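A favour, since you know our structure tokens better than I do. Go ahead and set the record down below.
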Amino acid sequence: MKVRVKFSKEGAVKFIGHLDVMRYFQKAIRRAGIDVAYSEGFSPHMIMSFAAPLGVGVTSTGEYFDMELKSAVSSRQMEDAFNAQMAEGIRVLSVREIPQGKAHAAMSLVAAADYLVSFREGKAPAAGWQDRVRQFLDQKEIVILRKTKRSEKETDIRPWIYQMEVRQDAIFLQLAAGSVHNLKPELVLEAFAAFLGEELAPFALMVHRLETYANVGSEEERRLVPLEDLGKEIK
């Protein structure tokens, strides 16, 4: 059986990198008594995979990983068992069984993500920036200089910005994510600052990921569904 675990990562644990988070959950699985499946061979390891791991310094209430189980109790029992082992800042929000036929690795399913980006005190753009968000998004092209390991190239990121709007003093973004197109919110905000004729101050942004989605439609007609919704609760 494969299950998908949704969890949050907030507070000081945002400074813990992906590999340490993975090791943390491996220990928590053992302590919680989850009947996880292991690979075969000389060096058995838990069969698990994470979907679109966060960058260091980013918080989230929409993180996921999949794991194989040899046997399972109810979703509620597994959630309670996990959370009895969790440190402050990490909480398991749901455990869902992935039905046969939809049991693709979470990483391969990721197509988009929601973010809420706010500015640290004193580091927001000049007054009136909220009124310019719609103008920024109305551009036919938003070209940035994107760095790769070997070079730099101009890239139009406008097709990868699915939504962008002001929410109080923050900016909500829905962006392409995953292995095909992966747009970081920091790049969008840098482009927005340039559009305003400004440059973001160092460490100006606080980024929170709200949700991670799969696309159950097509590239032309997206139908985004939270990864959690592809599974079902175990009674």
